[in-house]
Write a structure and sequence with these properties.
Blueprint lengths: L1 H16 L16 E16 L3 E6 L5 E5 L5 E12 L3 E19 L5 E3 L11 E2 L4 E23 L2 E23 L5 E25 L5 E23 L5 E28 L3 E15 L20 E13 L1
Antiparallel strand pairs: 1-4, 1-14, 2-3, 2-6, 4-5, 5-8, 6-7, 8-9, 9-10, 10-11, 11-12, 12-13, 13-14
Organism: Novipirellula herctigrandis
InterPro entries: Major_OMP_Legionella
Keywords: Signal
Length: 323
C-alpha cells in the first residue's frame, strides 16, 4: 500500500509539472479544468508520552526519584500535492516524516541505585550501583502517507473542505540503557524496540475564514485516523563479554487511533498569471492512542510501564501555491 501511495504522489507531481497541458475536454487551448496545488510544511514538534521514564534513582523501595527524558523540538517536513476541479472536488497526497531522540546520563551516588526502564520476570531491571553510570537513550520515528479526496463548499463567510481517504503509517520506539563502571568501561546493556505498521481510513475537515479583502484568513483543521496493523516488540540484553540474551520477541495485531488539530492564520495573494501564493503559521497538536511499547511480561514486583499514548505539540510554517 505504501508503494501505491508513493506512486500517487509521483503522479500528482507529474500533473503539477504538466499543468499547462491539462485542458477542458473538447476545448483545446482553453484554461485548465483542474487546478494543481502544492504545499510544503515546515513542522516543529516535541513529543509527550504517557510515561517517558529515562531512569529511576532508587534509595529504597519507598524513596526514589523518576528522571524523565528531555526531548526538544524536532524539525519534520510535510509535503502535500494534489489538484482541485472546477466543482470543488479535489484529490491529494500527503507525506510526513518525523524523528526525534534524546539521551540522558546519570551517575549513582553512595546508597543509590540507578534502575532503567522495563523490568523482566526472567532478568529483572538493568541497574547501576554506587559510582557506576547509566546512560539511556530513546528514539521515535514516524512516517505517514495519505491519499485523500474531498469537497470544497462555502457556507456564509466560511470556506469548508471535508473528506476522507486512507493512511499508511510506520512508526517505531527504541529504548536502550548502557551501564558503565566507575572507570568508564561499558558493562551490560539493554535494548528495547517496538514497531507498528498499519493502514486505515482517515476523515478530515478544514475551515478557512477570510477577513474582508486583506488577504488574511483564519484557519482550523482537524483529522482523525483509525489504523490497523502489525505490532512487533523485541528486547535483549548484551553482557560485557558480548553475550546476547533474548528477553522478548513477539508480534500481534494492533490498532492505533490518531487525532490531529491545527489552528492558525494564512496570508495569500494572486501573483503573475493568477496563481495564488500563500504562507501559513499554524499551531499543531497530535494524539496517538495505543501506540507504543507493549511488553506484558513484567512481574508485579518489578517496574512496569506501557508507552500506550504519544502526544506531539508544536507549530508549522508553510508555503504553498495554487496554479
Amino acid at each position: 500500500m505504501k508503494n501505491i501511495c508513493f506512486g500517487l504522489i509521483a503522479l500528482l507531481l507529474a500533473s503539477i509539472l504538466n499543468a499547462e497541458e491539462i485542458t477542458a475536454a473538447g476545448s483545446p487551448g482553453e484554461s485548465a479544468s483542474v487546478t494543481p496545488f502544492a504545499t510544503f510544511e515546515n513542522v516543529f514538534l516535541t513529543p509527550h508520552l504517557t510515561s517517558d521514564l529515562a531512569v529511576e534513582r532508587r534509595v529504597s523501595s519507598t524513596v526514589h526519584t523518576d528522571e524523565q527524558f528531555d526531548h526538544s523540538f524536532a524539525y519534520s517536513p510535510r509535503l502535500v500535492l494534489g489538484f482541485v476541479g472546477e466543482s470543488g472536488f479535489d484529490v491529494r497526497s500527503r507525506i510526513w516524516w518525523y524523528e526525534t531522540d534524546a539521551t540522558e546520563s546519570f551517575t549513582a551516588s553512595a546508597g543509590e541505585t540507578l534502575i532503567g526502564r522495563f523490568g523482566f520476570a526472567s532478568s529483572g531491571s538493568i541497574a547501576a550501583g554506587a559510582d557506576s553510570s547509566l546512560v539511556t537513550s530513546e528514539r521515535i520515528e514516524l512516517l505517514t502517507v495519505d491519499a485523500e479526496a474531498g469537497q470544497h463548499i462555502k457556507f456564509r463567510l466560511w470556506e469548508i473542505h471535508a473528506g476522507g481517504g486512507v493512511r499508511h503509517m510506520g512508526g517505531s520506539f527504541k529504548y536502550d540503557a548502557q551501564v558503565f563502571d566507575a572507570g568508564g568501561t561499558p558493562q551490560n546493556r539493554r535494548d528495547i524496540g517496538h514497531r507498528f505498521d498499519g493502514i486505515g481510513p482517515t476523515l478530515f475537515s478544514e475551515f478557512r475564514r477570510p477577513i474582508a479583502d486583506t488577504g488574511i484568513s483564519l484557519l482550523a483543521n482537524t483529522r482523525y485516523a483509525l489504523l490497523f496493523g502489525d505490532a512487533k516488540t523485541t528486547a535483549f540484553d548484551t553482557a560485557s563479554n558480548a553475550t546476547v540474551s533474548n528477553l522478548a520477541k513477539f508480534r500481534n495485531m494492533h490498532h492505533v487511533q490518531l487525532g490531529e488539530i491545527q489552528l492558525g492564520i494564512e496570508y495569500s495573494r494572486l501573483v503573475l498569471d493568477g496563481s495564488r501564493l500563500f504562507v501559513q503559521g499554524m499551531w499543531e497538536a497530535q494524539v496517538w492512542q495505543n501506540f507504543g511499547y507493549d511488553i506484558p511480561i513484567q512481574s508485579s514486583s518489578q517496574r512496569s510501564e506501557s508507552l500506550e499514548d504519544l502526544g506531539l505539540i508544536g507549530a508549522s510554517f508553510n508555503i504553498g501555491i495554487e496554479l
